[in-house]
């Protein structure tokens, strides 16, 4: 694999950021390093990567059911279409672009484009965290995250996205009326990209200063998988 260095740090499942407390004070950022939330460590189910496959102990029955319902050939793995079907049964319908991103992030890096029970359980748990974040920041209860809600969410989670980048993000989810409205699946997509790239950068920025020196090679290995793996 070309991305062996990249993948070597990818031994456990990606996760959602920790939800800040309700009384979260933006000023706290000053004392927590550049990213506000230097070491998010949400609960992760024990990974079953590389094992014979089976759900981690304690996996909820509805998660097992959702997986088995779409794994029709009982191969123990599901592809992106099956994943889309499984997640759409638990949440709203997920667009295929988000599914491809999730598949890229959660699949065993040494395996093909499919995920097994362990990865599925990790993904499901991660989406539960994102759902809580989505509901917290959907302040007007519209069922969508608008640009102000998105800005608050990203900043409160500790992602100091520069205004120019934020504008690019907002324009990507513009519904044609000049306003961004993110459904849950788009919110997950946006959040996973911002978090994923920030995490990759933080691996290089050990002191959480907000800057580091990157080789061209490292930079490309960091960014390109996010651009080409799922579109
Ligand atoms: Ca809203």
From TrEMBL:
- Superkingdom in the source lineage: Eukaryota
Keyword Calcium belongs to the record: yes
- Xref: PROSITE patterns: EF_HAND_1, EF_HAND_2
**Which stretches does the entry tag as region Disordered?**
1-55
Q: What residues does the EF-hand domain cover?
A: 58-93, 125-160
Q: Where is the composition biased (Polar residues)?
A: 1-14
Kindly state which keywords UniProt assigns to this record, in alphabetical order. Answer: Calcium
Q: Locations of Low complexity compositional bias?
A: 29-48
**Sample GO molecular function, one term:** calcium ion binding
- The molecule here is called EF-hand domain-containing protein
Q: Which organism is it from?
A: Hibiscus trionum
